[in-house]
Amino acid sequence: MNTIHLLLLTLIISFAPVAASAEGNKSSSQAPNIIIIMTDDQGYADVSYSGLKDLMTPNIDMLREDGMRFNYFYTNSPVCSPTRASIMTGKYPDKVGVPGLIRSNPKDNWGFLDPNAILLPKKLKEAGYHTAHIGKWNLGLSSPNLPNEKGFDLFHGWLEDMMEDYVVKRRVGKNFMRLNDKEIDPPGHATDIFSDWAVDYIKSRKNKDNPFFLYLAYNAPHSPVQPPKEYYQKVIKRDPTLPKKRAKLIAFIEHLDCGIGKVIRSLKNIGEYENTLIIFTSDNGGDLQSLANNGKLRDGKQSMYEGGLRVPTVIVWPNVIKKGSSSDQINSTVDIYPTLTSVVGLKPNDSFDGQSFLSTLIGNELKIEREIYFVRREGNINYGGKAYHAIRVGDWKLLQNSPYKPLELYNLKNDPFEKNNLVDEFPEKVSELNNKLMIHIQEGGETPWQKKYKQ
User: What is the pLDDT of residues 59-105, one digit of tens each?
Assistant: First the structure.
């Protein structure tokens, strides 16, 4: 830890003392609870704080008003499993065996989480945290990569990737809903179920001595876009001119926002909102097939263009983070783990690929230019089991948007919407970034992402 980092950590501790003992004997008033709220396929602009007029997300907007908006927050993949791996490990997804989606069908499975990876909940337990994961896991379907084996005291959620129906809750005819290791089949809409379970968990932590970490990962608004009828009717009544598909997605997101509001209110009801660090983000850009809105950003989910990688992100920490503040610092999901370990006073891990942005949270943006990498491996006729990548360094971004397409180069400062491919004008920059990317690909190739195991 360098001198600057030590000074920043000392400053933040003076604002909000943190837990530092494995026994967890600190009172909740002395250590911040931590909640990560992750939505699935929510577009960069699909929050009403972005200025949209067709959509209303008052509860997400409230978080934005109470915290810091990150304007350049990236996921390290344009799809879900790799992004979740980067959050949970602080490493690039291909370096922990998750370059693509983890699925129950071995012929369509493109990742296997490194069993030796130390996940965020296990690390936070060293600082005395009680840990819970509610919602979508998508990082393993069997031992040794089940949530309870990776550091979560409680798992109440869904193991697989998407649900084919939010009420029936099945994938390829199988039930992947669990309470710890027990198969369950709760009635109701999955968004409501996850919100209610999160509320129940937060209530259970009232007056506990040790702080808690809650990872709340919704499946919504991932397709199939399936809002409750009353939400859809409300949207149509408000604006009958909306395309049906867009109206359904808006209703789906507004239903999700309502669930988030329940969770935040429960936190306030037990008197812990002021003592909780909350991260709200999405796992990748919005799905254009569902008429998601990524603003002016190019493309959407599955794409290495900005619309597939930049996501709405807000962080709240009352009395520490300035209300209504914004940051233009470039961060990604791989930075969340090192940031949270800094917050709770744990020693930094030299193996992190991400970096702590704790200083940014207290108003001192980092002025460091660094590489940020993005990866996705996928099957079917469009990808053939191959991977494709992108790298951003400063204002420059080199990408390949398919294993079968050529490299493209953009200067995001001058061309934020990626309209002018500069690959022919700047061959030396292409070579420089490609060399960095090749080294990263070689490092990722050292970690197996396939394993023969029974589902």
Answer: 999 999 999 999 999 999 999 999 999 999 999 999 999 999 999 99
Q: Give dist(CA 249, CA 449) in Å, integer.
A: 34
Residue 394 has pLDDT above 90, yes or no: yes
Q: How confident is the model at residue 357 (pLDDT cuts 50, 70, 90)?
A: very high
Every domain of the chain with CATH number 3.30.1120.10 lies at 373-444
Backbone phi and psi for residue 182, each to the nearest 5 degrees, phi listed first: -100, 130
Is the alpha carbon torsion for 253, 104, 79, 300 positive or negative?
Answer: negative
Domain boundaries for CATH 3.40.720.10 within the chain: 3-371
Specify the length of the chain in residues: 455
**Tokens 């709220």 appear where?**
37
The CATH code belonging to domain 3-371 is: 3.40.720.10
Average pLDDT, rounded, for the chain = 93
Annotate 148-215 with DSSP letters as a single string.
Answer: GGGT-SEEEEE-SS--S-TTT--BTTB--EEETTEE----S-HHHHHHHHHHHHHHHTTT-SS-EEEE
Which amino acid is residue 12, in one-letter code? I
CATH code for the structural domain at 373-444: 3.30.1120.10
